[in-house]
Here is the input.
Amino acid sequence: MKVKLIKKQNETKDIITFTFEPEKKFNWIAGQYIILTIDHKEPDNRGKMRFFTISSAPFQKNPSITTRINQDESSSFKKALTALEIGNEIDAKGPDGDFIIDDLNKKYIFIIKGVGITPFISIIKQLTYENKKIDGLLLYINKDEIAFENELREILKKQSKLRLINLKNLDDTKSYILKNFKNNISKHDFYVSGASIMTLETEKFLDNLGVEKDNQKLDYFSGYKNN
Here is the structure.
């Protein structure tokens, strides 16, 4: 399937959202990902294809991806992505993935870092659009500017059971969980999204707390440093 770039938008100084228009109807569930391929010269060892969580909500019709761009450190793929002009077409496959919310009767704790916000912004935008409430806590680890900050604040006004807590690092996040949830940890489902190292470390932490695998969902963002 071909998708055409129709919009670029800076979310922070180095996080950009790219919105595409598919050549045919494209349906996805909030939290799923899309696979993009950009044919470019001299690709690095990671190649011409990447997996991106869709940051737009299904009701918005056009899939968006949101990623951090650092021109000094970016892969050949991200440089090619940044170089795309409005109207350019690339190849896409999907959607796929099970990082979705399918039971609103549960209590959720979302542990996210940096651009790991992308599946959650899609999920909570869609739920809000459908006038559905989610009982959850968003533990957002971010040292810099917060992507989608204004949008998050507006959504939180409508999601009375959803709270946002900003934290500086993973150690602070672990301490917060131990202080507030250690005695009722089994009552929550945990969704973790961010750089692979951070996600793996969080998985180990949850395992040690006795959180069952069935109560964990993990979204690994490869290619990002653990910062």
About this structure: Confidence is low (pLDDT under 50) at residues 223-227. The radius of gyration is 17 Å. The first strand starts at residue 2 and ends at 10.
